[in-house]
């Protein structure tokens, strides 16, 4: 069952198209993440759901309630949508205590004091902040402020939870902890959630499904495993998992469909996946942790030579930048390599072949 349905949503600012026919279905109880770089339209989509942005066209439906329909001239006010929105900045009132901040939306709704007090206690208990109820925001850590912001949103029992990069202001250690308790809380409450981030690790670890956005469009929707293992195009392959991209030309197509491609420097590779036609320009995508540094090219297929441009020590491993076929390839390895020229093994079942991106006119 679809808890949230978005159909052909468009948003235009002047001459700029911010959203281009965005359509999306979020299932009941699902944790769906809008993932993409800055300016791709993910926050605009979230704010359109919340009623803080007015789309140019399209429809938004929550359950059986039409929140927005340009054709029918329907646009519910934000407070009438029963959506809970947590901002990146948390937006806590500095002059109010934790308890007063969480109680604020209930006071606006005219909830009786006895009911209000119980709901506030319940919400603070959910996020483990009840012992700090009398503190002010400036007396809390970033992680604690985030929990208060979430409690303030959950206290009025919204149908839909909307989160706009809520972990981005936390340091790396707190972010990892917050990621865990946020996912556990969402699963426990089974609240339908739309989460916005540019952080691929957050998206992969938190989500039931991910919608990858680029330039105002959704370019792929799938489970975290599907998005990572079977990206639809070079953008998704690079943005989710940081793939190396090598421009090439398809030389031949084997009986089983594997393609032999020629890199810009003339070296040959084979790729098992892809449907690019013989003679066509293409791109190979392969992740840094799938490339191996080997001692020789005699015993393995798909071995090519490159020149080491840079070496980085990253604690648990080394990362090398290697020039190959007119491109730069990142390679991760446990061992340290001193040679300036290396052999690289690119397993053909790890080489993802795509059509070359269109050149803008």
From TrEMBL:
One of its GO terms (biological process) is quaternary ammonium group transport. Keywords: ATP-binding, Cell inner membrane, Cell membrane, Hydrolase, Membrane, Nucleotide-binding, Transport. It comes from the Bacteria. Signal peptide: none annotated. The keyword Amino-acid biosynthesis does not apply. It is an enzyme of class 3 (hydrolase). Pfam families: ABC_tran, TOBE_2. Its EC number is 3.6.3.19. GO terms for molecular function: ATP binding; ATP hydrolysis activity; transmembrane transporter activity. Gene3D superfamilies: 2.40.50.100, Nucleic acid-binding proteins, P-loop containing nucleotide triphosphate hydrolases. Residues 4-240 form the ABC transporter domain. InterPro entries: AAA+_ATPase, ABC_SmlMolc_Importer, ABC_transporter-like_ATP-bd, ABC_transporter-like_CS, Mo/tungstate-bd_C_term_dom, NA-bd_OB-fold, P-loop_NTPase, Transp-assoc_OB_typ2. PROSITE patterns: ABC_TRANSPORTER_1, ABC_TRANSPORTER_2. GO terms for cellular component: ATP-binding cassette (ABC) transporter complex. This is Maltose/maltodextrin import ATP-binding protein MalK. It comes from Pandoraea iniqua.
